[in-house]
Known about the structure:
This protein has five helices and eleven strands, in the order E-E-H-H-H-H-E-E-E-E-E-E-H-E-E-E. It is of the alpha+beta class. The mean pLDDT is 93.
Amino acid sequence: xxxxxxxxxxxxxxxxxxxxxxxxxxxxxxxxxxxxxxxxxxxxxxxxxxxxxxxxxxxxxxxxxxxxxxxxxxxxxxxxxxxxxxxxxxxxxxxxxxxxxxxxxxxxxxxxxxxxxxxxxxxxxxxxxxxxxxxxxxxxxxxxxxxxxxxxxxxxxxxxxxxxxxxxxxxxxxxxxxxxxxxxxxxxxxxxxxxxxxxxxxxxxxxxxxxxxxxxxxxxxxxxxxxxxxxxxxxx
Length: 236
């Protein structure tokens, strides 16, 4: 298996693949998505700035995916940017013939897989951090596994959760809901989960200190030793 980092401006990603051609396809797919997004922001900078749902003046797939996911989750479009770019990369891998492809874009993962894939959970200083992993079964269609944290990384958060991980076959929606849930969930207040459509989101796992919350159907969670150096992040 090939593991290759990819960095371009704000994108800090790791690509897993079986074939160098699929790595090249992943990079091309992410670059095309970034270029589409940057071109739109250049003529509509409010799309990047707003923390609220926004209706864009664009039919471009990257833009409509981000805006649609943000509208359903009640956040700004940029809450879905990393997942959307990873999604474009994995779709490009599929088009190049890949049956296995993983892109971790700063903790927001898109994947297809012809084998089980272990996805570790990093949650800062929480007790479970780097000690458990999900065993994700083979996936013929792209799956999003996106994580937001109020205590790890540079992203803006209005919450206090150490990690909120969302599973959905709509990767943009997985990313947007990760932000929304992380903003609102508290150990004694889980009302945000009542807004989520189980037809769109399959499972949620949240860590808040010593408190964990599970919602929906999740892959098996097993003990693991997670290597923090494998995490895709800008400060590596």
